[in-house]
């Protein structure tokens, strides 16, 4: 979009604080419509604000973050919205553009008209936070605020007085007032970012000496806040472009706790600059500071107060959706990282969702994670995703969840069929194999193991196993699909495995796996949709290294598994795909077979 420079003569930037003349404020605006039809213009008592929704509207069940954007002195909420347009840049926020009661905000200097007239701006914003969380599905604690010019001073006041309400706060063209700097007391560690032009004449980069309205410098502003939020800060400096210098303060303990000073060399009193998109950069910073730093295409959907992480790719078609469910590998890692290749490939043909069970990736923790829990929540979750027809693709033991779902499905959603890739074999001998060994040991000493893992004792082992898996997968991916592999997403998900609570989930799922098998076993006899099975011979690797005492049992497991898989596919009118000399990571080694199996079921249903 073309950029326009609008010269705004403000009657209150300095005059209201010191009755002195003030320079012209230059604000860079985007040439965009004033508002969209979905915007709501609302009031709270005698106060007014605009509530802006993401461009696609609010999705039922999706959990959002809350963002406040405060206009400058003499400005309006409409002008702030035109300038920033956060709702057009991210689908993750509900954005509030509040209107100050007086010509400016009560910024905490105890020197201006808003303070003298008792505007109670701080109280107004706190009430709005509570109101929004009561009325919308918002993530707890995921509140953000940014202000421009005098609105930036107000955002600092909110940080100093109610840091516990915010995950991150930012200011643009707003070094802190000298008066607020002497009173600021931040109680909860909160991320902070300041964007400031070095040639700003309205609120100068180097601060301002004034008897009533003094300013500390931009660097001192960030240093002051950081001294209270990140006393152990690791400081780095970079120059992303010729005019932009960034000084980053990072916590050595909490990766989401940051402070950042962005200095625009020669920049004036403006929101954005020629080589710096402030709105986009702020959203990136907020995402880094979030407890839910979700990757692209990801969202959280709330079912029974718990949030499920769902990554959705591809366009909706009349063929329905594909839903991928992850299962366990040899290390019992069982999350959406396994879909990092097949999801983008399948998304070329249909809309594809991959769902992380509770306790995995960014999904909420739950006391007793299991496939049973997922199956119980799937009917509502699929409805929230807007699914009308579905083809399931499950890896490894997630076939248990599909069996449970088919037993109690959403009656309004048609199931075209299910593809099982290396599923659990639901015969007595195989079930006993799964329920013995590690699973039995964990169940026997449940409390002891949970305490051990919760103490962080599995983190390094998990890190080592993640490295092993990645090295193996790199070698498995066919050369013609190397470019489609989403290593960024894979890395983001596997990093979540290092969270201690996610490790606790892993062992709890292993413990509850015993019961999931018992629940699913009888359900295999009443399947009403086609089941196609992709069957590898990965068991051969375990057989080769097994001692004589266990080898016979493993051979029987492999042999009966092959026959059972053929029988399931035949009885349900699905297809059987046999892969020789293959690994268990079929999603990476044989993606073409996986896609073929899914598309065959979809096309058959038309």
TrEMBL record:
User: Which keywords annotate this record?
Assistant: Carbohydrate metabolism, Hydrolase, Polysaccharide degradation, Secreted, Signal, Xylan degradation
InterPro entries reported in the protein's UniProt record: AB_hydrolase_fold (IPR029058), FaeB/C/D (IPR043595)
What GO cellular component entries does it have? Answer: extracellular region
Report a single Gene Ontology molecular function.
feruloyl esterase activity
Compartment(s) where it occurs, according to its Swiss-Prot or TrEMBL record: Secreted
Record keyword Nucleotide-binding present: no
PROSITE patterns assigned: PROKAR_LIPOPROTEIN
- Superkingdom as given in the UniProt entry: Bacteria
Q: Name one GO biological process term.
A: xylan catabolic process
* Keyword presence, Signal: yes
Q: Please state the span of the N-terminal signal peptide per the UniProt entry.
A: 1-18
What protein am I looking at?
Answer: Polyhydroxybutyrate depolymerase
Species: Pseudoalteromonas phenolica
């Amino acid at each position: 979009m073309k950029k326009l420079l609008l010269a705004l003569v403000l009657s209150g930037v300095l005059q209201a604080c010191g009755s002195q003349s003030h320079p012209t404020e230059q604000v860079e605006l985007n040439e965009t419509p004033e508002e969209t039809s979905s915007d709501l213009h609302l009031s709270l008592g005698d106060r007014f604000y605009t509530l802006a929704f993401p461009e696609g509207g609010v999705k039922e069940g999706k959990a959002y973050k809350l963002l406040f954007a405060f206009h400058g002195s003499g400005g309006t909420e409409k002008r702030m919205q035109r300038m920033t347009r956060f709702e057009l840049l991210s689908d993750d926020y509900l954005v509030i553009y509040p209107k100050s009661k007086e010509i400016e905000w009560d910024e905490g200097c105890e020197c201006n008209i808003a303070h003298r007239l008792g505007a109670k701006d701080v109280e107004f914003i706190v009430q709005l936070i509570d109101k929004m969380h009561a009325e919308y599905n918002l993530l707890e604690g995921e509140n953000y605020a940014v202000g421009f010019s005098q609105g930036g001073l107000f955002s600092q006041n909110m940080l100093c007085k109610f840091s516990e309400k915010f995950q991150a706060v930012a200011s643009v063209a707003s070094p802190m007032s000298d008066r607020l700097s002497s009173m600021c007391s931040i109680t909860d560690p909160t991320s902070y970012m300041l964007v400031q032009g070095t040639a700003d004449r309205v609120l100068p980069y180097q601060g301002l000496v004034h008897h009533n309205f003094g300013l500390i410098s931009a660097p001192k502003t960030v240093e002051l806040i950081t001294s209270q939020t990140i006393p152990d800060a690791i400081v780095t400096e970079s120059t992303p472009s010729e005019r932009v210098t960034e000084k980053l303060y990072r916590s050595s303990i909490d990766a989401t706790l940051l402070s950042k000073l962005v200095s625009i060399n020669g920049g004036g009193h403006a929101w954005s600059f020629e080589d710096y998109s402030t709105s986009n950069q702020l959203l990136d910073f907020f995402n880094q500071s979030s407890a839910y730093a979700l990757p692209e295409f990801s969202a959280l959907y709330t079912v029974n107060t718990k949030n499920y992480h769902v990554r959705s790719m591809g366009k909706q078609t009349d063929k329905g959706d594909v839903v991928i469910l992850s299962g366990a590998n040899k290390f019992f890692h069982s999350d959406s990282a396994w879909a990092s290749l097949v999801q983008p490939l399948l998304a070329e043909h249909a809309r594809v969702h991959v769902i992380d069970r509770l306790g995995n990736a960014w999904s909420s923790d739950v006391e007793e994670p299991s496939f049973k829990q997922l199956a119980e929540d799937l009917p509502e979750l699929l409805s929230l995703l807007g699914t009308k027809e579905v083809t399931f693709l499950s890896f490894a033991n997630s076939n248990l969840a599909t069996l449970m779902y088919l037993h109690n499905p959403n009656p309004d959603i048609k199931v075209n069929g299910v593809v099982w890739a290396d599923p659990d074999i639901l015969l007595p001998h195989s079930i006993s194999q799964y329920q013995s060994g590690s699973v039995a040991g964990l169940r026997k000493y449940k409390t002891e193991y949970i305490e051990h893992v919760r103490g962080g004792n599995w983190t390094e082992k998990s890190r080592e196993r993640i490295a092993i898996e990645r090295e193996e997968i790199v070698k498995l991916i066919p050369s013609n699909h190397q470019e489609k592999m989403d290593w960024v997403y894979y890395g983001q998900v596997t990093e979540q495995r290092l969270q201690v609570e996610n490790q606790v989930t892993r062992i709890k799922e292993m413990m509850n796996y015993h019961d999931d098998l018992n629940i699913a076993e009888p359900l295999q006899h009443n399947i009403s949709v086609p089941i196609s099975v992709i069957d590898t011979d990965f068991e051969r690797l375990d057989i080769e290294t097994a001692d004589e005492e266990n080898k016979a049992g493993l051979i029987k497991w492999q042999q009966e598994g092959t026959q059972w898989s053929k029988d399931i596919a035949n009885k349900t009118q699905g297809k059987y795909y046999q892969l020789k000399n293959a690994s268990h990571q079929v999603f990476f080694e044989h993606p073409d077979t996986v896609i073929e199996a899914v598309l065959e079921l979809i096309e058959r249903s038309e």
